[in-house]
# Entry
Amino acid sequence: MRDDCLIVRAFSLPEIVASYTSYDWDVLIRQARRGDVLARLYFVLKQHQLLTKVPEPALNHLMSAWALAQKHERDLRWEVNRIQHALNETEIPIVLLKGAAYLMQNLPAAQGRFYADIDIMVPKESLPVVERALLIHGWMAVKLDVYDQQYYRKWMHEIPPMRHRRRQTVIDVHHRILPETTRAQPDAKKLLDASIPVDGYESVRTLSPVDMVLHSATHLFYEGELDHGLRDLLDLHELFLIFGENENFWNKLGERARKLELTRPLYYALRYTKGFLNTPIPQQSIRQIETEGPNWLFAPLMDALYKRALVPVHPSCDLYMTSLARWLLYIRAHYLRMPMYLLIPHLMRKAFIKEKENS
# Structure
């Protein structure tokens, strides 16, 4: 689906890097850095025993990114320990989401990942207790504007982000995986009930393998700002590879997506991991979900949009009307998340604030 971007080629067919010229490597490093996948590239090339094919200047960049990713991993493990400590007395289990979950379950998707924040999910009725405990242990609300506070607490699937006053680490506390206003309404209780423990942590859990994939797909394909789109697509690729070794995983995936009203993001996840990264997905699984895609009129349009948006934001990856494609997906994401009577005032306010900040 997209083979003209060097970084996509490198991940879909790692052996191709042996043919890259010095100029190719210069562009590749820039693309990988913009896509936040430079350390992931190091990991993949090491897996395929291809580091000897990397020119020394490029290898220095890869090794530096890998060292930084290792520091991020150590910091995140410590942060999970601190979150567990803060919430220990509440006796409320926390479910880690996305990157933190991949790391604490020692999944390949965590390798070479950088972490800007930690996402957790708790039952909605537990939010006041959890927020109070985090406040006591040094986390404070990042967004103090009255509108932002109301926006998060009334409409969103999480409370406003909280930053620790000393370590400056950010935690996002979710009670759902999609906002209250979204058409799809995946049952948070089903997700929490099916969660699995993290070894060595009494009250820390993650989503089950099937739910982890569905949440990753939902996060990516309901997202409007796709600066890290390739990284998130690589996460899905790695999850499919590791969980797909169990035949029951593929049997459960489509059925679970229907129960959680998440068949459309699963359709896109299967289609674009296979299209971009040659992910080995059973044909039966693709056939089971094909009818859940957009109709014949919109399917080519969505392909054209994601072909442009699921690559790093770098001029060498741009196609005709790439900027327009990203803007349309941004509007689509907000439309999926909010009804029009909320969406239009919200976007107008964001545009006003951005204009004011730039003036």
User: Anything to note?
Assistant: Residues 56-87 form the longest helix (32 residues). The two ends are 40 Å apart (CA to CA). The first strand starts at residue 94 and ends at 97.
